[in-house]
Write a structure and sequence with these properties.
The protein has no helices and eight strands. Strands 1-3-6-5 form a four-stranded antiparallel beta sheet, with no helix packed on it. Strands 2-8-7-4 form a four-stranded mixed beta sheet, with no helix packed on it. The N and C termini lie far apart (37 Å).
């Protein structure tokens, strides 16, 4: 199971954080990708994962956000038991200055 968010709004040059939580036994692993190119996130993006019981929360932080960073991001959770990954799309909206 993956929980929110669905959309995040921010302003250009700000820092934005987007979190995604999943629950499962065994605990899932969460991977973030940008939908338009399917690439894992890197560069100005850092990822932090925290665990609490059977929950995992993954938070990406994008520094100095630019309008080109706007779009849909995929949060995907997998574990050794699940036959297929479970995902959630998060839309990032960036307003220019």
């Amino acid at each position: 199971m993956i929980t929110r968010p669905y959309a995040v709004k921010t302003i250009q040059n700000e820092r934005v954080q987007i979190s995604c939580s999943a629950r499962g036994i065994p605990r899932p692993t969460i991977i973030w990708k940008r939908k338009r190119d399917g690439q894992r996130l890197r560069g100005r993006v850092t990822t932090n994962n925290t665990r609490d019981g059977e929950y995992v929360t993954s938070t990406i932080t994008i520094s100095r956000i630019q309008t080109r960073d706007a779009g849909v991001y995929n949060c995907t959770a997998t574990n050794k038991i699940t036959a297929r990954p479970i995902g959630r799309e998060v839309t990032l909206l960036v307003q220019g200055i």
